[in-house]
Amino acid sequence: MSKTYDNLMEAFAGESQANRKYLAFAAQAEKEGCKQAAKMFRAAAEAETIHALAHFRNAKEVKSTAENIQAAIAGETHECVNMYPGMILDAKNEEEMAIAKYLDMVCKVEGVHAELYKDVANDPTTDAEDYYICPVCGFISKGKFDGKCPVCGASGEKFYTVK
């Protein structure tokens, strides 16, 4: 790949991380009653998203929907098969059991995400049900979810919809 491509992908990663970081900072500012700081963090987060998406498009990483679904399946599968198991082991070796437990939940959820992508790959144009997300672990349910989250045990009443 070219140096320009590498630079775009590095910038994409940095801008993407800045977006998430600033949203976390905004949530903390809200908790502390710092409303102006929270608004500024959210505004900057949105600006970083604009940058990240432009970098990703300029790197020509947005392909056809079929190709994007396959990339998503590969990414989610890599996370649950290769990435998180090693991280879980590292956390256990460092006696960070709460983090190991959390990473294990995330690992399981990534596998669910891969399966949901495989499902949508079969017919990406169908008018589908809504997706519901667990606010604790990120588990996604296709269609209304009742009961407890199968990964973390959170109440299905707390799930929110993504359309």
From TrEMBL:
Gene3D superfamilies: 1.20.1260.10, 2.20.28.10. InterPro entries: Ferritin-like, Ferritin-like_diiron, Ferritin-like_SF, Rbr2/Nigerythrin, Rr_diiron-bd_dom, Rubredoxin-like_dom. Residues 1-128 form the Ferritin-like diiron domain. Residues 129-162 form the Rubredoxin-like domain. GO terms for molecular function: iron ion binding; oxidoreductase activity. This is Rubrerythrin family protein. It comes from Mailhella massiliensis.
